[in-house]
Amino acid sequence: MNPMIRYLKSHMLIPLIFGILLILAFTIEPLDQMLEGFVNILLSKSILVSDYLLIGGLAATLFNVSLTVMFNLLIVKWLKLKMTGPIFACILTIAGFAFFGKNLFNAIPMYIGIMLYAKISKTPLKNYILVLLLSSGISPIVSYLMFGIGLNLWISIPLAIVVGMTVGFILPVFNSHAIKFHQGYNLYNTGFSMGVLSMVLTAILSAFVVIERSAQVENGYHEILLYATLLVSLLMIVFSFILDPKVYLKYPLILKKSGRLITDFVDVAGKPATLLNIGLMGLFSVALVLGLGIKINGPVMGAILTIVGFAAFGKHPLNSLPVVLGAILAVWLTPLELTLGPILAIFFVTGLAPLAGRFGFVAGVLAGFVHLLITPLALSFQGGFDLYNNGFAAGFVGAIFASLFVIIKPIKDEKQY
């Protein structure tokens, strides 16, 4: 195999895609304008929903996305870890939320906290690689404490760093217990863990300040982002056939899996079949955008990249479609309108795909329906500091429906939590 093809296979095209994005960032706008936008991103409150496309512009956002991804890839390389399905899911999720809430600056305190926990517990840091990569989902607490509550920087910066490190220190242990609550049927397990911690932080902070959130987004880059998603999805599919011309023979191995945590599709069917699934889920996302008639902004792009990422770690078209249909029905059959919150819930509801994969189509539709109704309540509880708000909501939905449906269809072939 050609060395370049072998390298791209081992890294599942990530360096190529985000390397191109980094180059594009320098060609879209003048350098000083891009850097000014990037500084605006770093100094933003970053609480849900902070669309970096609106705050910093397209070039600055792509610069933030690319740098954030490359930084995390370096951590993976430093720990000498291979590109598995779960790590791919984490990297793409990081890329997605670097469009609205994550940046190079606000994630570092959580990383340090997790590293301290690993050192004190005398455990290899690589054991916590997934929770470390995803810990940046609660990074808005750092930005908000620094720039959002009106304190002098000499007070707010140390305060934010200490709080971020404390959250990071707690997260590894708390996350390992959280999975038992929803029994592995919420792919966004870390989002649920951080939602609980965020709820506590919100309660404390609300006693002293009024937490202000915004829902303004930038839809002006819709066509560019739509075509980029389509192009990358097709690239994944083509590359999967380059790696294995008969990849379609292994792909059914993925479709047979429920997707319940922990299901690494790379282990199940290999990287070519996983790349095929990633590409198909990208097309699934494009179809959803076109079918709903919505615009792609920073948050929606984040949702799309999360779907694409978890296509290596639990999601496929068969288990995703029922929960998405359930969420869409919840909009159609209730007074809810297709505003930003419900739109994001329709995409992120795929975190509950394992419920449909394990208990069937009807169970998936019901779970998706309820998830969309619970999501806004979850946001009010956790205050907007947990970027994975849908993961927080999905934890409750997964726990409820798994407990009910297991009575009808007992688990015989999967690990019980």
Describe this structure in words.
This protein is mainly α and 417 residues long. 69% of the residues lie in helices and 0% in strands. The chain has 2 domains: 204 residues, no CATH class; 187 residues, no CATH class. The chain is built from 21 helices and no strands. The longest helix is centred in the middle third of the chain and has 30 residues. 56% of the residues are buried.
Please estimate the helix content.
55-70%
Distance between the termini: 42 Å
Uncertain regions: pLDDT < 50 for 5+ in a row?
Answer: 412-417
Report the structural category: mainly alpha
How large is the share of residues in beta strands? under 5%
Biggest β-sheet description: none
Counting DSSP H or I runs of 4 or more residues, the number of helices is 21
Shape: globular
Using only C-alpha atoms, the radius of gyration works out to: 20 Å
Number of domains: 2
Q: Write down the secondary-structure element order.
A: HHHHHHHHHHHHHHHHHHHHH
Number of strands: 0
pLDDT averaged over residues: 91
